[in-house]
Amino acid sequence: MLPISFIRKNKNKVILGLKRRKFSNLKIIDSIFKLEKEKIKKILKKKSLLAKLKQISRLIGSNINNRYLIPKATVYKNNLQLVSVLVKLLDNKIYKLLITLPNIPYKKLNLTNNISIYKNKTLYYKNKLIPHWELGKKFKLFNFASNMAGSGFNLYLDKGAKLQRSLIQYCLDQNLKAGYIEYVLPFLVNKNSIFGTGQLPDKKKQMYFLEKDKLYLIPTAEVPLLNVFRRSLFKILDLPFKATSFTSCFRREAGSYGRKVKGLNRLHQFDKVEIIEINSDKNSYKSFNYMIRHVKNLLSSFNLPFRIISISAKALGFTSALTYDFEVYSPGQDKWLEVSSVSNCTNFQAHRMGIKFLNKYGKKSFCHTLNGSSLAIPRLFAALIENYQFSDYIQIPKVLINYFMDNKISLN
Fold first, then answer.
1. Could you give phi then psi for residue 233, rounded to 5 degrees?
2. CA quadruple 158, 186, 367, 284: dihedral, nearest 10
3. Do 160 and 137 meet the contact criterion of CB atoms below 8 Å apart?
4. Pairwise CA distance, residues 403 & 95, whole Å
5. pLDDT beyond 60 at 178
6. Going from the N-terminus, what domains does the chain have, and what CATH number goes with each?
7. For 362-371, how does the pLDDT look when each residue is reduced to its tens digit (9 = 90+)?
8. What burial letters (b/e) apply to 158-186, b meaning 16+ CB within 10 Å?
């Protein structure tokens, strides 16, 4: 969330940033300032009434004949209560406007076009390229669970389940080697947790909600993982703090139809290994670059063709100031599939969750939070079996052989 103090001091910067994101309702800024001006007037009136009430209270205490003073004091008290209510109402109105404003994009971002900033040269040329949904059927790796949950749900079986588990464990192990601390998290969280990481109000329609319990199924491990540190105060020497977790993720993905959702491309429930970093304002882009290198090394270890895309200011997620997407090539579909998205959310989420650090001068400041996939398993699974396919077997990448305990998946 953008603090009103920041907007006040950097009005032109905020307006320019919102314009770069193609955020159209810029009148919100003027509405916020108008409400704040009205709130300040009420606060001044509240202070004046408090001073008058204290003064008349002293007179009542020292005056035997105070029958005229007590009714006057009652009027002051009633007016004070009314003004206090009005201040709270104005606070609420300002807050409701503030939470609709997205984060300000990184100043060097391209305005409207995503830009490819890296592409490796690993390519596989085969006579026949079969898409992963046909490979899944041919090698009996996975089925779609439409009979038990409807479309958009999948089940892995036998060697497909084994490969899925191998991918998850390998990604986790690589994260641990890189210094990330592992957490096992709940898959259900409350409204405050969802709001803290910025999914509310932005992505309300994309989430599954349990009405009776007032709980949300997590759209990503980022939500519970960052909320572990809600209202935390880090010492500067403890930063950067790095954590990782494997969870299932749940998304309605409203409006997703057609070829792009076929197979494992887009699911309502999918597995993902997540990483987050919490750092100071001065060092968050160092963390961002570190996370990019880590995911790049992780993808390179599979020897898959992939590219890195810098997301434009226009296409940024609500909480992000800078995002790089990692996409692997799917030869069976002749398209690129996103398997990771690394974002620097600056202090946007930290303001919502109250995550701060104590600098070397003893001053409290809001942390910067970063998150990334390492990696999204279904699309990685799809790209892997397509790139490593042969007529009667699927080769297992070298880095997964010890996890999978075999070097290939055969038809027999």
1. -125, 110
2. 0
3. no
4. 50
5. yes
6. 4-98 (1.10.287.40), 115-410 (3.30.930.10)
7. 999 999 999 9
8. ebbebbbebbbebbbebbeebebeebebe
